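Notebook, p. 212. Picked up where the previous page left off. The plan for this session was modest: take the two constructs that came back from the sequencing core last week, fold each one, and keep the raw output in the notebook itself so nobody has to go hunting through shared drives later. Recording the first one now, exactly as returned: residue sequence, then the structure token string.
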Amino acid sequence: MIDTDDMSAIEKSIKTILTSIQEDPEREGLLDTPKRVAQSYQFLTSGYDTNLEEIVNGAIFQEGNKGMVIVQDIELYSLCEHHMLPFFGKACVAYIPDKKIIGLSKIPRIIDMYARRLQVQERLTDQISQALWQILNPKGVAVVIQAKHLCMMMRGVEKQNSFMTTSSVLGEFHDSQPTRMEFLELIQKKNQ
């Protein structure tokens, strides 16, 4: 949690930025902007204040299921660490249990924990898969993220229709091509 002194420092910095781009921070529409931006950053970087154990909170259950578990279309929003502009998209998470499953709502919470930090999509994808690997000790984990990056859409090359796909596969998803292909076929069927 960003403390009061840091919130004040962010507000002061935003006023400096406004002045530097030749805006008037005392203009009616901008009077509360520094405070709102500070509050936004507090929320958008709240992942630094959470940890995996708090999120999971004991929601791991003994279960004999050995079939693939897939959760798709999990919305995510993050800030690119290079330009502090948003990137957003959807994650698909799969795992093959080895006597343990996780409460369904915990998967999006894990994603949010890592997404609400300054990020690159490649690291975010790996952090999610490593977290599930760590807490479940499953037979395999697969994470695929597709996201649009405003740093590429609004500035630089300005390619509005581009998106990035990243994947991280561990265990059977990495070692077994038939398992990986089954996963890819299952997630493609949903998208058809």
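Okay, moving on. Second construct, recorded in the same format:
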Amino acid sequence: MARRKPNYDELLKKLEYQFQKPEFLDEALTHVSAPKAGGQSYQRLEFLGDRVLGLAIAETLYKTFPNAPEGELSRRLAELVRRESCAEIAVAWDVGPYLKLGAGEAHSGERRNPTILADVCEAVIGAVFLDGGYEAAKGLVERSFKALLEAPRRPLRDPKSALQEWAQGRGLPPPTYTVAEQTGPDHAPKFRVMVKVKGTETEFGHGTSKRIAEQAAARSLLLREGVWTEDEHGTV
């Protein structure tokens, strides 16, 4: 009996792409545990898609933020290509029902496994690249990652950089950081750091290194001054 071909109509609608060679999509959705996988899975496509995703995102960021410095572009890139972001895209595509898994993996809920979903996201991008070329893959990335690009899930700036930019924007001198206290043994020190911005009250931060304590102090000052909010950036 001929094997019934899977119906990918709903998935293809979400991808907004039609494969010339559907076998690429088949491979992108096949976990190594799947029956008759024969050792073949999405892993090679994932490897390829990871590189295509990075290039497509980098090009998109370069065009979308023409005045952004390299550091900001790098932070935006890292945010968009991380596993959590890729898993979120795979959920939006609703790839779970289409995954080819072994019986044990299917019963243990692996269709919702963020690691697998992230891998499959990259594999699908790789499949589109092989099927339709770079422009087709870039189009898929731009459509799918648009919301994440416009509204990152995490702060793109570290607290010290954000505080310095805030101070500069108000025409103030750069923040100053002072170690107020150091406790603990040499191999496991703890620091209490004070940060001061002209015209504001002093804030403190704690950490297992001066850098961590400085970041914590800067975060506290940004939260207190209302520059950052706890909903967006959390507490120290």
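Notes on construct two before I forget. The first helix runs from residue 9 to 15.
Flagging for discussion at group meeting.
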